[in-house]
Amino acid sequence: MKRTIKPSIPERSEDPLIEVSLTVNGEAVTRKVSMRMLLSDFLRHELGLTGTHVGCEHGVCGCCTVHIDGKAGRSCLTLAAQANGADIRTIESVATSETVLHPIQQAFKECHALQCGFCTPGMVMNILSRFEEPGPLDLSDEGIRDMLSGNLCRCTGYINIIAAVRRAGELTGRT
Fold first, then answer.
1. Range of 152's domain?
2. Which of 45, 60, 93 lies at the terminal end of a domain, its last residue?
3. Which of these three, 93, 120, 137, is where a domain ends?
4. What is the pTM of this model?
5. Which of 75, 112, 135, 175 would give a disulfide with 64, using CB separation of 3.0 to 4.6 Å?
């Protein structure tokens, strides 16, 4: 049986385009995109910010977590058009420089809290959102598990991730 190779997919769809203007990692960005384009695809394909990972595309795994107007949100469930006017923060903005990690990232490194690293950007963004909220943090095992409940990791078993969150609390003075 002869196999038929599908023709190449056009670079852009025939979807109606909409102009979106938002701030990403402190930089104003305006682009015309498909009305159906997801924020995760906008960040990855339009802006080249590939630190935002796409896992399940159903909002379950948390790999695509970014900050949308200061709160953790799933970029795979958000249309780029819905983010029009929003302030978006991705994992690329977290480290203070190319050589100095954010305390949460440092804690993940120190505690060996990652293996493949696919889930790590989403976890860091979720944890960072919780650390930036006012008020006390519950850094008990149960509190940390609750904090991580929206993020799935298939490699580590969470023991080192829990230790890393607790260590991040120490490094940031949130203990």
1. 103-172
2. 93
3. 93
4. 0.89
5. 75
Per DSSP, the residues of 46-105 read IS--TTS--SSSSSSS-TTEEEETTEEEETTSSBTGGGTT-EEE-GGGTSSSSSS--HHH
Check which CATH number belongs to the domain holding 156 and give it: 1.10.150.120
- Strands (E) in 4-58, as ranges, are 17-24, 27-34
Q: Do the bridges between strand 65-68 and strand 71-74 make them parallel or antiparallel, or are there none, so unpaired?
A: antiparallel
CA 127 to chain centre: 10
Name the token pair of 91. 């994992």
Q: What is the pLDDT of residues 97-153, one digit of tens each?
A: 889 999 999 999 999 999 888 999 999 999 999 999 999 999 999 999 999 999 998
- Number of domains observed in the structure of the chain: 2
Tokens of 80: 């780029």
